[in-house]
Each structure stands twice: as structure tokens, then as C-alpha cells.
Specification:
It comes from Cardiobacterium hominis (strain ATCC 15826 / DSM 8339 / NCTC 10426 / 6573). The protein is of the alpha+beta class and 74 residues long. Helices cover 38% and strands 22% of the residues.
């Protein structure tokens, strides 16, 4: 399963979240919300946000490895 991580460039929390997911071996695609006005309007200060492959569920930061595992388990 692939996940998406909504981020903003220069966001240290986004960098930390991406690093955590990589350390866990989670296949994740970063989406820069600043490139899409609708996403920026919706998630401006909420990033990073992790989404499942279908985009049905989201996990708002702060999250740790345990929270990511629970999220991935469904």
C-alpha cells in the first residue's frame, strides 16, 4: 500500500515526519500543498498530514511510529 504525505517546503515538521516514515519503511509520496491552492486552503497550517492510498483516512501530525502502525492497520 502506498501513502501520501501532505507537506510544505521548508517545514521542519514535514521533514521529520517524512524521515520517520522512511525509517519505518513506509512507501510514501510527498505532496507539496503550496502547488495546489485548494489543498493549501484546506491544510495550510495542519501539515504534515498522512493519507492512506485511497485518501479516505488521514492522520494529522504529531504522530509517532506507534500511531503510524495503528493507522496502517486500519
Amino acid at each position: 500500500m502506498r501513502y501520501r504525505l501532505f507537506v510544505r517546503l521548508g517545514c521542519h515538521l514535514c521533514t521529520d515526519a517524512f524521515a520517520l516514515l522512511c525509517e519505518m519503511g513506509v512507501e510514501v509520496q510527498r505532496v507539496n500543498i503550496d502547488r495546489e491552492p485548494a489543498l493549501r486552503a484546506q491544510y495550510d497550517l495542519l501539515v504534515p498530514v498522512l493519507f492512506d492510498a485511497e485518501g479516505d483516512r488521514e492522520l494529522l501530525y504529531p504522530f509517532d511510529a506507534q500511531a503510524v502502525r495503528r493507522f496502517m492497520a486500519g
